[in-house]
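User: Can you help me understand a structure? I only have the sequence.
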Amino acid sequence: MPEFQDFLHIAGRTELDATPLVLLHGSAMDERSLLTLADRVGPDRPYLALRGAVAWEDGFAFFRRHPDRTLDYADLLRETVHLGEFLRAALENGVLRQPPVLLGFSNGAIMAASVMLHRPETIAGAILLRPLSPAPGANFPDLRNHRVLVLGGASDERRAPEDFTLVRDQIERSGARLTARLFPTGHGLHENEPAFVHDWLTVNFPSA
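Assistant: Let's start by predicting it. Here is the structure, written out as tokens:
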């Protein structure tokens, strides 16, 4: 079996059999940043909360940006391969008992979308909170067996309106079972979003 290492992580509720969550935080955050959200959206699910491999400002990120804040697509691809190998090892070693749902916010949501593009066999679906497309001109693979939730902020100061539309349309063309919503908020989460995510998980990945 492969070594299980590379990403510093926190494992929680590992005794449960429901579809697990893999938590991918935003830029300048760490592996603890989404734990409260995980408790709200999936209190009956195991989770792995990962720390991004890239030191960034006062925290970490899953891939780099250029100084003008545009995405470093080369680094994104390298780190996607890195994460894909981690997920494969976690599944083979039984650390993840079944393919997980990636729950990503901002930088982590872009990484989650990139895993769907390049390593979809390692996951069952994804929750993308404030994503950007990991490859604006690409066609995603056949994702008919995946379920995906894309949530944007209608007044997000870090995203243009077309950013949400592009990600939504790329995933929709892949055949994934897609739910996409805009909430009346900025880059941070609206107070009603955790409940919305919880309900979506309950319908699409019901607990045993």
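Now, to help you interpret it: The mean pLDDT is 95. The first strand starts at residue 9 and ends at 12. Let me know which part you'd like to focus on.
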